[in-house]
Amino acid sequence: MTDQSASDQPRRDSLTTIAARAGELATPSATTPLVEPIYQSTVYAFPDLDALEAGMAGQQDAYFYYRNATPNGATLERAIAALEHTEAAACAASGMAAISAAFLGVLAAGDHLVTDERVYGVTYALLRDELPRLGIKVSFVDALDLDAVAAAFRPNTRLLHVESLTNPLMTVADVPRLAELAHGRGALLSVDNTFASPAVFRPAEHGADLITHSLSKYLSGHSTAFGGVVAGRSDLVAAARRILLRLGGTVSAFDAWMTMQGLKTLGLRMRAHSGNAQAIADVLQNHPRVKRVYHPGLESHPQFKLADSLYPDGFGGMLSIEVDDAPQFVKRLAGRIPLAPSLADVVSTLSHPWSTSHRALSEDDRRRLGITPGLLRFSVGIEDISDLLEDLEGALE
Predict the structure, then answer these.
(1) 0.70 exceeded by the pTM?
(2) Distance from C-alpha of 370 to C-alpha of 360, rounded to nearest angstrom
(3) Is 217 an active-site residue?
């Protein structure tokens, strides 16, 4: 009996390889450009009515109108589905468009949704203010308390929504147990994976049905592209895509193309982001001027053991700290680490959640959730760690 040759062995490429090689060209030929061109055309022509009917009916692959699909968007969707290990993906004009489509694709008037109370501020506002206007009931719970989550379910609960890592306090969702809990009650689990990225966590591998991202964060990685994506089971993604088409929320060809350029270095970038964030958290947790550090890679983090089991490749590039003199600290960092209300650039940035991401919440709700005026969120970039530590320690001194 001869050994199976290496070429016959099934292979599973690493995430870094998948990301670097992502972008199968939509129009291959004998020779093809190494980088896919931008297909900016808003409409496509058909040779005859038979071809038009086949394309419109979905009997063959065809592009016909910009809002429905573009080659660049389709390329990006294939790449993200491969990275998240899901059946399909649908790109959207923004992260909030993606989340809205994911929700509206499976929910209708009379349905009920359970969500973690720590979700991103605009998601919180969507769930608190907009879905109830459509007849969809929403219950906010502490997703770290599985008994509370279970108690919030009703006979008409269709969806449970959490974030893999919450913004900005970096709590860690127990996705495997939450998936088991939801599925046992006939519901679906939706996970916003923006803070983690598929480079460090893939919710579908742990039972999640729907995964959403803001494309402008780690997937793009350079603050040059805008969009969102829904990934998951093909039927659920198809339902979200239907909402995006009807509400006009599809991604532009240029933003899809720009995201693809950043996506190719996702694995490399996330190793640098994760390593730098861990090093900064290790230093700042012992600094006398820092009251508290929020990072799942610290043994002092309440969900450290859970994070360590779910995130074997690092914890991403996000962390938050609480200081007494936040305004002065921000001023001392000016010119070195910019104050910017977003995240996941290759350059480190600083954000003030009280004033930005969670502004829509009442002051009482912000304080109850641990979001104080002294809380600062760091998106740690890929700069040399010695330079970053020098900047932070100088500002703290």
Answers:
(1) yes
(2) 15
(3) yes
Q: 25: how many CB neighbours lie within 10 A of its CB?
A: 14
Tokens representing residue 213 in the block: 């991202």
Q: Which residue has the tokens 């808003």?
A: 42
Active site residue 137: no
8 A C-beta contact, residue 183 and residue 193: no
pLDDT in tens, 345-392: 999 999 999 999 888 889 999 999 899 999 999 999 999 999 999 999
119-143 pLDDT, tens digit per residue, is 999 999 999 999 999 999 999 999 9
Residue 368 among the catalytic residues: no
Residues pairing with 214 in the sheet:
228
- What are the beta bridge partners of residue 379? 318, 349
Annotated catalytic residue within 21, 67, 246, 291: 67
Catalytic residue among 120, 124, 294, 311: 120
**CA–CA distance, 138 with 104 (Å, rounded to integer):** 13
Answer yes or no: 264 catalytic. Answer: no
Look up residue 33 and give its amino acid: P
Distance CA 96, CA 346 (A): 23
Active-site position among 217, 241, 269, 366: 217
Q: How far is CA 185 from the centre of its chain?
A: 26
Q: Report the distance separating Cα 191 and Cα 212, nearest Å.
A: 6
